[in-house]
Amino acid sequence: MKVSPTLLGNRIESLDMLRGFALLGIFIANMLTFHSPYFYIDPHTYFSTPGDQFSYKIISIFIEASFYPIFAMLFGYGLQMQYAKSVVNKTPFAPIMAKRLAILMAFGLIHALFIWSGDILFTYAIMGFIMIGAVRIPKKWLLPVALVVYLIPTLLLIGGTYFVTKMFPDDLMEGYSDIQRIEQAITAYGHGSYVDALLFRIPEWLLIGLPAMFMGVFMVLPLIMLGAVFAKVKLFERAAQFKGRIALVTLLSLVAGIVIKSLPYIDEPTYYYKLTQQLIGGPILAIGYAGVILLLCQLPIFQKVFRPISKAGRMSLTTYLTQSIVATLIFYNYGFGLYGKVDIETGTLMAIGIFILQVIFAELWLMKFKMGPFEWIWRKVTYGKNLTKKEEKVQVL
Question: What is the pLDDT of residue 178?
Answer without folding.
Answer: 83
